[in-house]
Amino acid sequence: MSTLRFDDRVVIVTGAGGGLGRTYAIEYAKRGAKVVVNDLGGDRHGTSASTSMADKVVQEIKAAGGQAVANYDSVEFGEKIVETAIKNFGRIDIVVNNAGILRDVSFGNMKDLDWDLIMKVHLKGAYSVTKAAWPYFRKQKYGRVIMTSSNSGLYGSFGQANYSAAKMALVGLAKTLSLEGQKYNIFSNALVPTAGSRLTETVMPEDLVQALKPEFVTPLVVYLTHESCTETGQIFEAGAGWYGTTQLYRGKGKVIPHATAEDLKANWSSIVDMNNARHYNAQELMGELVSALSEHGNSSSGNTGNTGGSKTH
Ligand code: NAI
């Protein structure tokens, strides 16, 4: 099989000064891409900044014969990061939204700052960088976007209300951008990685941190953003050498015209039955709802405001 090359492609990897992002940046450069190595160089809680993290990765890439430039802006300032790509390399093809911090604390003890900083870096950051790249993608009819989500977002995680909310929001963002981008050949997917890094070293035992190499995740990011990959709007997961996908499944449910809360209680086992559950797209969902309406018969326009306990039909 031929090597997946990225010659003449320009890639921004945010948060590429360490952990997962560093491995992506190095791999893209090895495969011929010109890489913007973005990193604010702060600590894992989103405070402080330095240029050294991005610089080190750029040096590593250049020493191996690759092409890269550093950018030290926070991801909230996406225009500056995209400007670095345009000024140095003349174009932008791929955005890997990877920068991240943690502000773990139980919901009861969470401060506004914990919430705001997480939203700012993960959600606003991914929005900002992708938004700045979007006009270039549209004009050249080519773009690839990765949104880094997390199992904390998909399943929830104790002490990470802020982080899990932001990470699930990124799934929605990836899915909507895939719909809006498709006719311009802009593909967007959500990535769920698991790897040992400074973010996970506080929650994982040391041997697991060492074993779960970020390099296990790298091939998935590379393939998903290659011009030959047609996936878009999906959630992909990688860690420990395992690669897979996660989808939202919707049960068959039940149409109960003019239902009361009591009707729902009586039919609960059918409502939550997942035996014939399947994956839907947004159009199919609306189609099913319209056909549910037809089961209401001629009285479908009435009784929608029924909040009482008694049946009105
Ligand atoms: P990491 O801490 O090693 O890397 C994150 C990088 O982002 C750091 O180098 C940091 O300096 C940079 N950064 C932080 N705030 C920034 C900002 N405002 N602007 C620019 N750069 C900034 O962590 P890791 O594990 O490599 O995480 C990468 C991404 O993967 C994050 O989005 C994280 O939430 C996500 N993730 C990681 C998992 C894991 O198991 N390591 C699990 C699920 C998600």
Automatic annotation (TrEMBL):
Identification of the protein by name: Peroxisomal multifunctional enzyme type 2
Compartments, record wording: Peroxisome
GO cellular component: peroxisome
Family: Belongs to the short-chain dehydrogenases/reductases (SDR) family.
Primary residence: other
The protein's annotated pathway: Lipid metabolism; fatty acid beta-oxidation
Keyword Zinc-finger (UniProt): no
Residues represented out of the complete protein: 1 to 313 of 433
Species per Swiss-Prot/TrEMBL record: Panagrolaimus superbus
Keyword Transcription regulation: no
Keywords: Fatty acid metabolism, Lipid metabolism, Oxidoreductase, Peroxisome
Segments for region (Disordered): 294-313
A GO BP annotation: fatty acid metabolic process
Residue ranges constituting the Ketoreductase domain according to the UniProt record: 9-202
